[in-house]
Write a structure and sequence with these properties.
CATH superfamily of the largest domain: GntR ligand-binding domain-like
Shape: globular
Distance between the termini: 44 Å
Number of domains: 3
Helix content: 40-55%
Structural class: alpha+beta
CATH architecture of the largest domain: Up-down Bundle
Number of strands: 18
CATH class of the largest domain: Mainly Alpha
Number of helices: 14
CATH topology of the largest domain: Four Helix Bundle (Hemerythrin (Met), subunit A)
Amino acid sequence: MRVHLTQSGAITLCEPSVFNKLDVLVDPQPPERLEKAIARIGSRDGDGHVRLAPSVLRFLSSDAGSAEWGAKFDAMIGYAGSKGWLDAQGRVRAHLTYSEPTVPPSAIAEHNTGHSAAIEPKLFRQLLGCFPTGVAVITTNNAEGQPVGLTCNSFSSVSLEPPLVLFSLRKASSLVPTFNTSNAFAINILSQRQDELSGRFASSKIVDKFDGVAWRSGPLGMPIVDDCLASFECSVHARHDAGDHIIVIGEVKHMHEGSNDHALVFYKGAYRMLAESLRTLVVEGKLGTADLDEAYRTLYGKLLRLACERASEVELDAVEAAVDEIERHGADDPLAQRIESASRFFSAIAAAGHNEALMLMAQTMTAVLRERMTHVIPVRARPDLFPLRRKVVVCLRQRDPEGAAGALDELITKLRG
């Protein structure tokens, strides 16, 4: 496996299921940025090596939830230990390798064969998620005249004169034949209260997306979903083939103004409120400490109870690894590292609970934690809290839900003491 420190600052794990090698690939970047990136994953061990905590590799791997992957990973770490490649803290030694400098444009032109192997699809999608988008439901009628639709966040304006808009449709979508033969469609922009509709029209398990959904026919006969922020009925202006998508451009023929609510926003794989950023809420003190503590107790108490029932040993290892990481921090470690470690502890608990809705709430609470640690509360070493985090781990391994939730409650109480 290979940890990749990219030019953009992202850190990814390539070849997570290759267990007979381990290195860190570094893209060309300024020395200062490189040192910060290395500090995020471990520490230097001379000029040509880096020390990595196994918990970092588990955190980066998309396969970490697999029992088979976990067993092979543990075997890899065990082999490294037998060869003396682990230090006293259990960190494994990895080679630093450097990718070639950026290829000049002339060379790109000579060797351009279509798609660059340097663009990793997973990272590409992750970085595209850094751009917040609205969420819309695209609707039309099928050959039988029945309404059909799908969720889309690729809607965009194209032109004012004539009024053109577009959306991108995955070629793998079951609705491609319908949209390819339809001469019109509607774009319904969702409000922040319509996240359930977004999930409904995105689900492949729901056959009749319009069952129980309030809608009406527009002047072009297209399905207009009720209570949206706005809807646009369009005739098809053009279709373009684009990789694994089809770009559909429509000419707006009719517009419908809807509610005055705020827009539903999709950002980094989750819905967000556009009205107020979490940073503003936290910094301006609109989220009180007592309310937040109650929210943490309620949310993570439930997640701990679920984790006692559902978590695999690998997922409990991830919680313990996060505790290990917190305890390893020295008094002079950068604030960003401390915040990352604290966030990882709560994220590992959320993942172990196996509830997607609660995990989405936990992502929001983690964002609040980051902002509070950055802007509001003083961050200092608290070795007095170490036993309570350890107690959480012990209770999880013993499958003791009340003990785990109780330890968290003690932790929060002592944190405010």
